[in-house]
Design goal:
The chain has two domains: 96 residues, no CATH class; 97 residues. Helix content is 72%, strand content 0%. It contains nine helices and no strands. The chain is rod-shaped, with a radius of gyration of 30 Å.
């Protein structure tokens, strides 16, 4: 079963979540003796601090996006290089057989310029295979084994970089979900602790009660 996408429980930036958690933690440590009856203990506050630090340590969404963008650029460069070599090879083929002939069509290059990365890879494998089988025929027009080896090497680079692009994009999405999950865990615990703080001082200390208000929530929930 596909895991349900994580949705943020908080209506603030991740940076604000960190600063809010740190601010509230200082209030909670100040009032920990008064909050003991509400289940607030030093160990629980240490855990809140740990959750905050763990959240901060996670890669940011921007980092993941940048890594995916870098991988995409590398893949596009590999694709462009392979297509360029294919076109040069087919240019030599066309000197002997034009693009309407069965011999030209045997290479299967129609539509490869706009094909998916996977289809392009398979198509270029075919170009290399047909080219090697007919190398003697097209050698008179300049085709060499080195041309076909170059195409095969560039096609291997395309496959490699396409895989790396996919991994980078999946990694970025996974990191985003991990960060959201960690942020939600931190926020949910922070909410419970702040509710304890508000309950402790609602009748006795307006200022301290206000210290535990979370301003990302609707006013009625405060």
């Amino acid at each position: 079963m596909k895991k349900k996408a994580e949705i943020a429980h908080y209506n603030m930036s991740q940076a604000d979540l960190v600063t809010t958690a740190s601010e509230k933690l200082s209030h909670l440590r100040r009032d920990v003796a008064d909050l003991a009856r509400y289940g607030v203990t030093p160990a629980r506050l240490d855990e809140l601090q740990r959750l905050t630090a763990a959240f901060v340590a996670l890669p940011t969404e921007t980092e993941g996006v940048q890594q995916a963008a870098t991988a995409t650029l590398a893949k596009e460069a590999a694709r462009t290089a392979a297509l360029g070599t294919m076109q040069r090879i087919m240019g030599m083929v066309s000197l002997l057989h034009n693009d309407r002939t069965p011999q030209y069509k045997a290479f299967g290059t129609s539509g490869l310029n706009s094909a998916s990365d996977g289809d392009l890879y398979l198509g270029l494998v075919r170009v290399g295979r047909v080219g090697r089988a007919n190398l003697a025929t097209y050698a008179v027009k300049g085709l060499t084994a080195a041309d076909l080896s170059l195409l095969e090497d560039q096609n291997a680079a395309l496959l490699k970089t396409a895989g790396e692009q996919h991994d980078a994009e999946s990694g970025a999405a996974g990191a985003t979900q991990q960060r959201l999950s960690a942020g939600n865990t931190l926020y949910d615990e922070l909410v419970q602790l702040c509710e304890a703080g508000k309950a402790a001082f609602v009748q006795t200390d307006v200022s301290r009660h206000q210290d535990y208000v979370l301003y990302d929530a609707p006013a009625a929930a405060n």
